[in-house]
Amino acid sequence: MKKQRVMVVDDSAFIRRMLTDWIQGTSDLELVGVAKNGEEAEGMARDLKPDVVTLDVEMPVKSGLEALPEILKTGAKVLMVSSVTKQGATATLQALEAGAYDFVTKPSSSSSLAFTGSKDETLDKIRASRYARHRAVPASGSAIKVSAPTQVVDRLVVIASSTGGPSTLRTLWEQLPKNFPAPILVVQHMPEGFTASLAKRLDMAGTVPCREAKAGDKVVAGQALLCPGGVHMIVKPDMTIAFTDEPKVHGVKPAADYLFHSAAQVKGNKTVGVVLTGMGRDGADGAVAIRKVGGRVLGENEESCVIYGMPKAAKDAGGIDAEFPLEEIAGAIIASLAKKVRDAA
Questions:
Q1: Which residues are catalytic?
Q2: Segment 205-234 mean pLDDT
Q3: Quick one: fold of 156-344?
């Protein structure tokens, strides 16, 4: 298999050295360039034509967010490297919405050795660029126009997403109808410090209100709750939210499988699961559990996924009733709430 050509862009000399050493220590990645700010990165990307660029979010001269559009024009995939700060989280989410396929975090102090623990995750995400695709923005008016039922329904919608998820969720939210008739619970693979910002951005879409979940929250129709980073979320029989600090599942925490299994146990055939873009197989076992109790599970199809990993794993396991492109997922969810999933196809 051809080596992936990688370019590193970071304001921190320490982070540049760490990434350089990691990449040069592999047999399947080739380092083709190193830049210290966005302005340098734009010119180097045009000249070197890397396959993937690791791009620091916050840099002097020109930030990663400012340089991102020009780098994407070269055809390179972009993995953002973000500090765990409120400012860094907001900029990172903007970058993901603008076309970066994923991100990794680094310590706020560039001299910290804490970043060394991110080696395997970072290299895996660089390699994942081989399977990531640039997603075209759905054409205006292409979404299925489905109105929300006029009455609250006794159902629960649970959503899993990972790589490519923040921009996917934002697009989905813009297409969901107001006065949504059921609760929505979401697990997006993200570290602590980023989920609150994502929830706020979804809430700003102006359709279904969304916020980061808290222990004891009531699960109610018309409200979406996003699982915080660093914990697993479950729904209890009294329809309240709880968290568990169990180890990672499939290498991730939060893991959607916890939420999906609990939803299947609590709501049974009144559960509607949705598996969106993402790397790995989280959500597959939970999707099977939902279908076993008579619930429905929708998957995002390969053509619209940034990475067709999680939906494929769920489909291969027998956990998907039907697949839809992103612009049809909102309509399919509404149809499923009315037990008419085929009407959305």
A1: 162, 189, 282
A2: 96
A3: Rossmann fold (3.40.50)
> What's the pLDDT score for residue 29?
97
Cβ 222 vs Cβ 179: under 8 Å: yes
* SS3 assignment for 78-91: EEEEEECCHHHHHH
With 70 as the cut, is the pLDDT of residue 118 above it? yes
Report which secondary-structure segment, H or E, holds 121: helix 119-128
Output the six-digit token pair for 90.
């907001």
pTM exceeds 0.70, yes or no: yes
Residues near 309 by Cβ (< 8 Å), separated by ≥ 6? Answer: 131, 162, 163, 277, 278, 279, 280, 281
CATH of the domain spanning 4-128: 3.40.50.2300
Average pLDDT score over the chain: 91
Closest by CA position to 183, among listed 150, 218, 214, 151 = 218
Q: Domain segments of the chain: what residues?
A: 4-128, 156-344
Whole-number pLDDT of residue 345: 42
Cβ of 4: how many Cβ atoms within 10 Å? 19
